[in-house]
Design goal:
Radius of gyration of chain B: 19 Å
Strand order of the largest sheet of chain A: 5-4-6-7
Shape of chain B: globular
Number of helices of chain B: 11
Number of strands of chain A: 8
CATH topology of the largest domain in chain B: Fumarate Reductase Iron-sulfur Protein, Chain B, domain 2
Strand content of chain B: under 5%
Helix content of chain A: 40-55%
Structural class of chain B: mainly alpha
Largest interface: A-B, 64 and 60 residues
Order of helices and strands of chain A: HHHEHHEHEEHEHEHHEHHE
Structural class of chain A: alpha/beta
Number of strands of chain B: 0
Helix content of chain B: 55-70%
Radius of gyration of chain A: 19 Å
Largest sheet of chain A: 4 strands, parallel
Order of helices and strands of chain B: HHHHHHHHHHH
CATH superfamily of the largest domain in chain B: Alpha-helical ferredoxin
Strand content of chain A: 5-15%
CATH architecture of the largest domain in chain A: 3-Layer(aba) Sandwich
CATH class of the largest domain in chain B: Mainly Alpha
Oligomer: heterodimer
CATH topology of the largest domain in chain A: Rossmann fold
Largest sheet of chain B: none
Distance between the termini of chain B: 31 Å
């Protein structure tokens, strides 16, 4: 996992008093790749994580929308299909595990916006980022397919959070469109064309930065931005930061502690225009 | 394009496909497709597909699923669920695409030189081995298999990522790998065969 996302997540959760602890011996959810090969084993991978979380009597908070959808899919499908529940249940028993279906799977963004909320966040803002124009990017799988936490095609969770931080979220029509990351290696032109469209749309709406909630979107928009330029003759140079890094900045943490120096496209020039200490 | 008489393979594929799809909650909705094309219009990659999502269901009905499996269509699905949330008949098209990917691999019908199935298989192998993914191993094995020359182009970016600590070199192996293997083993043959009657003989090696 991306270290900057990991670091900034831990710092921000601590500052907000959101008690998280890494699920012991968690396994990869398998994402879309595993689902493309073996349906039952893909559900089994999710189910093991769910069973481990249930044993600790905790909800499962993830910072990756693909994990969110994959785990939620298993959670829902096991609940709706008794046969699948039996199949996976008996497989889990081979390792003395069981899953009763009580775990809630949530994305950290939603936890911070809904559980912590506006007042707690505003109270911790120590640095004004006022005027910084950020495109709030959600990607595909935070709200699709289930749409339990926000609108499936035009979510607002991140927009609201950015406002509380004093950042200006720009209107971003493509905020929940696909970044193409899954195709960047296998159908480069098709995949990166999606990233190109997103970046262009953000720039057209005056964004100086894109904020993501997904490590794969971050990788595509950040590390592959140079490839987009090469492939399409564009000259994009827009920094991409995780939403947790922006929260951390507003809360007064150092850039280093938040991993804001690990980008291929430095965010420093943009941030320096706005960063000032308020109190 | 002339309509080929649907052959036996296409028929059996269609049967296996429907059996699998009906196991997904709401899977039977596939019968209610009205061919409106909302899926194709919502799909961000349909412009590059041999058959659009709407045509996939048309092909199923015409007994020509084998053509879809051999095409580039399913491997261009980025799993963004735009079609799924907009379908007026409630068809879970993304799940349909996943099922088609699995069938294509199972029946050995993936298009020649298609890179996406290679990536998925490597991903699965790595997760089976460590219980987690190792991006570094995934990417290097993938390019070695599909396009070793492209690896040279990757070196500058890989170096930059590495220097920023974004390219971990040592994969983390979880304690539960053997546990997962045991679970997966326990649900093998009889249970899966029970879910998929009459398949064995037609399976490609």
């Amino acid at each position: 996992m991306n270290k900057a996302y990991d670091k900034s997540t831990r710092i921000v959760c601590k500052a907000l008093d959101v008690k998280i602890s890494e699920l012991d011996d968690w396994n990869c959810c398998g994402a879309s790749a595993y689902m493309s090969i073996d349906e039952l084993k893909s559900h089994l991978l999710s189910a093991r994580n769910l069973a481990l979380a249930e044993k600790e009597k905790k909800d499962l908070v993830v910072v990756c929308p693909a994990c969110l959808t994959t785990l939620n899919k298993t959670n829902h499908y096991m609940g709706e299909n008794p046969r699948l529940k039996r199949t996976i249940g008996s497989a889990l028993r081979a390792a003395n595990l069981q899953y009763f279906g009580t775990v809630k799977v949530r994305h950290l963004l939603e936890v911070i916006v809904n559980d912590v909320g506006e007042n707690e966040i505003k109270a911790r803002v120590k640095r004004s980022l006022s005027g910084l124009k950020v495109a709030p990017y959600y990607g595909c799988q935070l709200t699709r397919p289930f749409g339990e936490i926000d609108d499936k095609e035009f979510p607002m969770l991140l927009d609201r959070l950015l406002t509380w931080l004093g950042v200006e979220p720009v209107n971003f029509p493509m905020k929940a469109k696909c970044c193409g990351g899954m195709l960047a290696m296998t159908s480069e032109k098709v995949g990166l064309n999606l990233a190109r469209g997103l970046i262009q749309n953000a720039l057209d709406n005056g964004a100086e930065m894109i904020s993501t909630i997904c490590p794969l979107c971050h990788m595509t928009l950040e590390a592959y931005q140079g490839n987009v330029n090469k492939l399409f003759g564009t000259k994009y140079n827009i920094p991409i930061l995780y939403f947790t890094q922006l929260i951390g900045l507003a809360f007064g943490f150092s850039r280093k502690a938040l991993g804001i120096n690990e980008e291929l496209i430095p965010s420093q020039p943009v941030l320096e225009k706005y960063l000032e200490v308020v109190r | 394009m002339a309509l080929a008489h649907p052959d036996r393979q296409a028929h059996s594929l269609g049967e296996v496909f429907l059996q699998d799809i009906y196991r997904i909650p709401g899977g039977e909705k596939i019968k209610e497709c009205i061919q409106c094309g909302t899926c194709s219009a919502s799909c961000p990659t349909s412009y590059a597909m041999d058959y659009t999502p709407r045509e996939v269901i048309a092909a199923l009905r015409a007994g020509m699923l084998d053509r879809v499996l051999k095409s580039n269509t399913i491997w261009l699905c980025a799993s963004c669920y735009s079609c799924t949330v907009r379908c007026p008949s409630g068809i879970k098209l993304t799940d349909v695409m996943y099922e088609l990917k699995r069938l294509a691999i199972e029946f050995g019908l993936t298009p020649k030189r298609a890179a996406a199935p290679v990536l998925s298989k490597l991903f699965v192998n790595i997760v089976d081995k460590y219980g987690r993914i190792s991006e570094t191993e995934l990417v290097s094995k993938f390019y070695l298999k599909t396009n070793p020359f492209a690896m040279l182009n990757m070196i500058p970016r890989a170096t930059k990522l590495f220097l920023r600590g974004r390219l971990p070199m040592i994969p983390h192996k979880i304690r539960g790998t053997s546990e997962l293997k045991k679970c997966a083993g326990s649900m093998s043959e009889p249970m899966i065969a029970g879910l998929r009657p009459g398949l064995g003989a037609k399976k490609a090696s």
